[in-house]
């Protein structure tokens, strides 16, 4: 059953990413190089790429030498945390901001709802003991921190911010700093909860 989840998640993931790329190119408001850069400036896209890669690597048992990051302890829990953040922030903050239709609606639900849910279910049933080592999970905080720094630097020069709650030009640096701090706290909280769930599940298996 684990393999079924893996193929479902990476198939939906790659379909959604490619479809979203086509849609953003078709509806671009800037030249193609800038549009591509903007596409890869979304935490949603980057995280779904990481999740799709993770399950692709696991399903096909790809080379540990080339894809060692995806075999490291804690990676599954960290990526599950980030994809849950993608879903939570979208459902709470962004869903009401627009009303996608057609293919965009399908892709939107896949990226923000279906894939996060499937990833969590797969993690809950199939995460291993090595995925619940807090030291290995917490090191993944480098990913959202680097993302935020990149967005701030790029936004300073281009005035493009992928999310309204990160838009320094619109809401000011102070409010943006508060928002990023809250998101990082939420990430740490979910990481901790998932790690504790994993530890408890593994302990129950050994007793």
From TrEMBL:
Q: Where are the transmembrane segments?
A: 7-25, 37-57, 69-90, 110-126, 138-157, 177-199
Superkingdom of origin organism = Bacteria
Write the protein's name: Pr6Pr family membrane protein
InterPro entries given in the database record: Pr6Pr-like
Keywords annotated in UniProt: Membrane, Transmembrane, Transmembrane helix
């Amino acid at each position: 059953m684990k393999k079924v989840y893996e193929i479902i998640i990476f198939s939906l993931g790659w379909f959604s990413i490619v479809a979203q790329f086509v849609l953003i190119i078709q509806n671009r408001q800037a030249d193609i190089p800038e549009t591509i850069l903007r596409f890869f400036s979304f935490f949603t896209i980057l995280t779904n790429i990481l999740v799709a890669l993770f399950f692709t690597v696991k399903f096909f048992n790809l080379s540990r030498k080339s894809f060692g990051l995806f075999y490291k302890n804690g990676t599954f829990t960290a990526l599950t945390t980030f994809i849950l953040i993608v879903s939570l922030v979208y459902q709470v903050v962004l869903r009401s901001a627009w009303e996608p239709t057609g293919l965009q609606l399908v892709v939107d639900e896949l990226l923000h709802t279906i894939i996060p849910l499937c990833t969590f279910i797969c993690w809950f049933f199939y995460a291993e003991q090595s995925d619940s080592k807090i030291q290995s999970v917490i090191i993944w905080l480098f990913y959202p921190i680097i993302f935020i720094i990149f967005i701030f630097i790029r936004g300073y020069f281009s005035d493009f911010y992928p999310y309204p709650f990160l838009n320094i030009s619109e809401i000011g640096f102070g409010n943006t700093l508060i928002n990023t701090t809250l998101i990082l706290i939420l990430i740490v909280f979910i990481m901790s909860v998932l790690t504790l769930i994993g530890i408890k599940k593994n302990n129950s298996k050994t007793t």
